[in-house]
Design brief:
The protein has about 400 residues and is α/β, with parallel strands linked by helices. It is built from 15 helices and 14 strands. The mean pLDDT is about 95. The structure holds adenosine-5'-diphosphate. Adenosine-5'-diphosphate binds next to helix 10 and helix 12.
Length: about 400
């Protein structure tokens, strides 16, 4: 089965065509700056990537270009659209309605729309992707895979905020988390690497990319996560502040004469590594500058590692221990220096990084010492593969159900 995985952002459309039987990526690409004059479309795998300047007024047109590139041109992946069997959509906000991935129907579309209040840019973009697929690929089964659903197992003591309860009742203000697809994958792979039943483990999974989040997974169940009502909460990130004293928001509004949406922009796009270093949201540039003696870059580095370290401590306390800590995404997978800072001083907790293993690169690996009580694992995340796999499983199940019903009738 070939599954087209779509990840629609406010002005972008990322995609991969995945063959589930062979576990291969047949094609991938991204349409960027959708709706602007500078729109571009990158299509192809690694060195075969081509960049196509193309006009795309909206996600619908972008979708048309993607499908064209999949069936024609130098990097075509399949001969016709008939070879695409199903579509898996990444949807950011599933609210309280979805605790797992689901087959998309009118009810699901209605709920994704209703939940757009909580993630305006992302859920609306996902809806545009879904509508475009309905137009171009009529009748193809589609599955929604939610960033939040993995965290629907959180108990009220973990997901409620200590603000007036009526605000939860009125606006559904609570923690939903994000990056759930990544954390689910990391936890599953960790159990395989440790060769232990998933349900016996206490895990802390760290997704450290441009966006960063960390989760506590206790005996197979997510019990806490750092992102909140929105992905702004929790760890310090590339451009997002993560958790700060909430009074800072009104202080900035008063003293900098900013509106609520301007402060929202400042905390989401101008803070984090970028805000502190004044150089970049990209950790590589911050690292280079810090090694050249830039003090603010050095500070940004230390604040970032400290932010991760503090959450690791919190989650060890929440679970009463930890068997393994998993690191993933751009920073977690690649930055040995950041990993060294994160684990420095945690030896009394039985967490001992092996400095030599930490320097190795590529693939799944263990980077703790042989006698470390807690294992430290690096696992490259595979969100697209998870979306494809969920899509495959759900579509298979529904086809089997249909066949069974037909046999009975
Ligand atoms: P996202 O998917 O959230 O956009 P990624 O998972 O690709 O982000 O992670 C991007 C981050 O990873 C950037 O801050 C980038 O600098 C960092 N990164 C990637 N490779 C390295 C490296 N070799 N050393 C340090 N940081 C790295």
């Amino acid at each position: 089965m070939n599954v087209l995985v779509l990840n629609a952002g406010s002005s972008s459309l990322k995609y991969q065509l995945v063959n589930l039987e062979t576990k291969t990526v047949l094609a991938k690409g991204i349409c960027e700056r959708v709706g602007s004059k500078e729109a571009s479309h990158k299509h192809g795998i690694d060195e075969n990537e081509i960049v196509i300047d193309a006009e795309m007024a909206d996600h619908n047109q972008a979708m048309g270009l993607v499908l064209d590139a999949l069936v024609s041109g130098p990097n075509k992946a399949v001969d016709s659209l008939d070879e695409i069997d199903a579509v898996g959509h990444r949807v950011v906000q599933g609210g309280k309605y979805f605790d797992r991935s689901v087959l998309i129907d009118d009810y699901v579309i209605e709920k994704i729309d209703e939940l757009a209040e909580l993630a305006p840019l992302h859920n609306k973009a996902a809806l545009m992707g879904i509508e475009a697929c309905r137009a171009y690929l009529p009748g193809k089964p589609m599955v929604a895979v939610f960033d939040t659903s993995y965290f629907q197992t959180l108990a009220p003591k973990a997901y409620m905020y200590p603000i007036p309860y009526e605000l939860y009742e009125k606006h559904a203000i609570r923690k939903y988390g994000a990056h759930g697809t990544s954390h689910r994958y990391l936890a599953e792979r960790a159990a395989v690497m440790l060769d232990e039943p998933f349900d016996d483990l206490k895990l802390i999974t760290c997704h450290l990319g441009n966006g960063c989040s960390i989760s506590a997974i206790d005996h197979g169940i997510a019990v806490d996560t750092s992102m909140g009502l929105t992905p702004l909460d929790g760890l310090m990130m590339g451009t997002r502040s993560g958790a700060i004293d909430p009074a800072i928001v009104t202080f900035i509004m008063d003293h900098e004469d900013m509106s609520a949406s301007e402060v929202n922009d400042l905390l989401n796009k101008k803070s984090g590594l970028l805000g502190i270093s004044g150089i970049s949201n990209d950790l590589r540039s911050v690292r280079t500058a810090s090694e050249e003696g830039d003090e603010r870059a050095q500070l940004a580095y230390e604040m970032y590692s400290n932010s991760v370290k503090k959450y690791i401590g919190q989650y060890i306390a929440v679970m009463g221990g930890v068997d393994a800590i998993v690191l993933s995404a751009g920073v977690g997978e690649n930055c040995d220096k950041m990993r060294r800072l994160i684990f420095a001083g945690l030896q009394p907790l039985g967490i001992v990084l092996d400095l030599e293993k930490n320097k190795a690169r590529g693939g799944e690996r263990t980077i703790s010492t042989d006698d470390s009580a807690v294992q430290i694992l690096v696992i490259p995340t595979e969100e697209e593969y998870m979306i494809a796999r969920d899509t495959f499983d759900i579509v298979h199940e529904s086809l089997a159900g249909r066949d069974a019903a037909a046999a009975l009738s």
